[in-house]
Amino acid sequence: GIPIDKITEACDRFPKQQGVTFSYGTAGFRTKGATLASTLLRVGMLAVLRSKKLDGRTIGVMITASHNPAEDNGAKLIDPRGEMLDPTWEAYATTVANAETASDLLKALTQLVDSLKIDLTKSSSVICGRDTRPSGNELNDALQMGIKAMGQETVELVDLGVVTTPCVHYAVKSRNLKGEERKAYGEPTLEGYLSKIADAFNQLMTGRQSTSSLVIDCANGVGFSALEILKPMISSSLPIELVGTNIDDPAALNSNCGADYVKTGQRLPPAMTDILKPGQRACSLDGDADRVVFYYLTTGSHNAPEAGGQVQTEGKFRLLDGDKIATLAAGYIGDLVKQAGLGDKLKIGVVQTAYANGSSTAYLRNAGLPVRCVPTGVKHLHHAAERYDIGVYFEANGHGTVLFSPETIDILAQFEPSTPAQDTAAKQLRGLISLINQAVGDAISDFLLVEVILAHKRWGPEEWDAGYEDLPNRLLKVSVADRNAFKTEDAERKLTSPEGMQAELDELTRKFEKGRSFVRPSGTEDCVRVYAEASTEPGAIQLGKAVQDLVE
Ligand code: NG1
Ligand code: ZN
C-alpha cells in the first residue's frame, strides 16, 4: 500500500488552505505563489505515481508562472518524451490538489493506485526545475517532500535548480533515452542542452557569421542565466547583447519587459530605448524562456498598404511575432526540402490558432502551404503539427517550434544526395533537427533558428518583415460574471453560447472591411478575451470595442 505515515506527515507540514480550489489548466496549476505549497506537495506524489505507472520512466515537474507577475507561481508535469502531461492525468492532478485533509489525500491516492493498477514496488524517477521566482524555493521543498514521501527508497530525484522550462522538457526526454541514443541526443543538464544547441547553431552558421549583434531582453528572468552560459559558446557566430538581466530583484520579473509586454502593447521595452539602433534585430523572452518575439526600429520607409503604399518613417517600432517566425521558418524549410529534391516526399504544414493574424494565414496559403487552425494552447498545436512530415507551429504570442516526424528524421539520415546542392540542403535540414527543440517551444532555440535563416538569406529585419503586412488588430480582456457561460466551436472561432451572441457578432463584423472577430473564455485567467481585426487601425479599435460591449 501507499506510505500512510510519510504522506500524513508531509500533509501536516504543507496543509492545504481551506476553501481554495485548484485546477490543472492549459498551463498546469497557476495562481499566487503563496497558496501553492500544498499543491506542489501533491504534484510530487502524483509525479511518482505517473512514473511508476510508466515502468519507472522519468517524469518532469517545472515550477513557473511564465509571463505572469513575480508573486504568481505554478507547476506543470512533463511526460516521458518531454511533452505535456497526458490529459486524463490532468483531471487526476486537479482531484489530488483539491484533497482537503491528509485522509482525503490518502483516499484520493489509494483510489488512483487501485483504479490504474499501479505497482508501488516499481522504481520511479522525477526531474524538477524552477524559474527565478522567490516562492520557487519553498514550492520546490514541498515538491521534493511529496516525491520522497511517495517514492521512499525507490525514487530517483534530480533537481536541475533554476532553469528554463524548455530545459526541463529536454532533460526529461534525454533521461528516458539509453546509452548511444542519449549520447547522440545530449546530456540531461542545462549545460548539456545549451552545448547541444550551440554546436548545432555554430555548424549551421559556418561561413555565415553574423556581423551585427542581436539585442535580447531576458525579461529579468531565468533566460538570462541560460544566455550567460550560451553567450561564449556562440560568440564566434553571433554576438549577443543582453538587457533585462536583473534577476536579483524579484519585482523586476516581466515588469516593463518580456515577450508579453512587447506583444500585447506592441511597443519597445523601455530598457531598449537607448540601446537599439534602427535596423538592428531585437527579441524578448518571457519569464521562463519558452516564448520569444522579435522587433526592430525602421531605418527609412516601409510598405503600408493601409496608408496607400510607402510611408516615410525612421525609428518606428515594428513587431515580428510568432506568426512572422512561423512564416519565415516554413518558407525556409520548404525551400530546403525542395533543394534536397525531397519536395514530393516530405510535406510541410503550418498550425496556427485563431489569434494568428489574417495576413499571415493568407500569406501561407498563397505560398501553397497547408494551414490548420486549432484551439489555443500549445498541446493542441503540438498534436496537430505531429501529423505532418514537418510541422511548423507557433502561437502569435511566440510559443512554438518545428517538429520533424520520426520518418522524416530517418529519411534525412539515410539520404543519398545526387548533387552537391542536394547534399548541402540535407545537411542543413539535419542541423535544424538538432537546433530545434522537438519536445516543446524554446525561446533560445527559436531565436537561434531565426538567426540562422536570416544569415542564410542575408536578410535584415526589414526584408523579413516585408513578406506581408499585419492587419491592424486588438486583443481585449473583458471581465464577465461567468466566463464558463461562453462556449465555442470551430477551433474557438465561433460561439455556441450564450445563445444568439454569435449572430450579433457576425453582424458587427460585417460592417468592417476585412473584419474578423471572436470571443473565447481564457484558460489561464478569469476573463474572456475579445480579438478583433480589420483593414484599418480605427476599424480594429471600433470593432473590438463593439464586441466588448456585446459581451459585457
Ligand atoms: P488563454 O488565457 O487561454 O488565452 C494564454 C495565451 C495562450 C497560451 C496560454 C498558456 C493568448 C491570447 N492566450 O491562454 O496563447 O500561451 O496563455 O500560457 O495569448
Ligand atoms: Zn512561458
TrEMBL record:
Start and end residues of each Phosphoacetylglucosamine mutase AMG1 domain: 193-293, 321-459
GO terms assigned for molecular function: magnesium ion binding; phosphoacetylglucosamine mutase activity
Cofactor: binding details: Binds 1 Mg(2+) ion per subunit.
Species this chain originates from: Filobasidium floriforme
Reaction catalyzed: N-acetyl-alpha-D-glucosamine 1-phosphate = N-acetyl-D-glucosamine 6-phosphate
Presence of keyword S-adenosyl-L-methionine: no
General function of this protein: Catalyzes the conversion of GlcNAc-6-P into GlcNAc-1-P during the synthesis of uridine diphosphate/UDP-GlcNAc, which is a biosynthetic precursor of chitin and also supplies the amino sugars for N-linked oligosaccharides of glycoproteins.
EC number: 5.4.2.3
TM annotation in the entry: none
Pathway(s) served: Nucleotide-sugar biosynthesis; UDP-N-acetyl-alpha-D-glucosamine biosynthesis; N-acetyl-alpha-D-glucosamine 1-phosphate from alpha-D-glucosamine 6-phosphate (route I): step 2/2
GO BP field: carbohydrate metabolic process; UDP-N-acetylglucosamine biosynthetic process
Active site as annotated: 66 (phosphoserine intermediate)
Alpha-D-phosphohexomutase alpha/beta/alpha domain segment(s): 59-90, 98-179
Cofactors, names only: Mg(2+)
Residue ranges of domain Alpha-D-phosphohexomutase C-terminal in the record: 494-537
Keyword terms of this UniProt record: Isomerase, Magnesium, Metal-binding, Phosphoprotein
Domain of life: Eukaryota
InterPro entries recorded: A-D-PHexomutase_a/b/a-I, A-D-PHexomutase_a/b/a-I/II/III, A-D-PHexomutase_C, A-D-PHexomutase_C_sf, A-D-PHexomutase_CS, AMG1_II, AMG1_III, PAGM
Family label: Belongs to the phosphohexose mutase family.
Binding site for Mg(2+): 66, 286, 288, 290
Binding site for substrate: 395-397, 520-524, 529
The keyword Ribosomal protein is annotated on this UniProt entry: no
Name of the protein this chain belongs to: Phosphoacetylglucosamine mutase
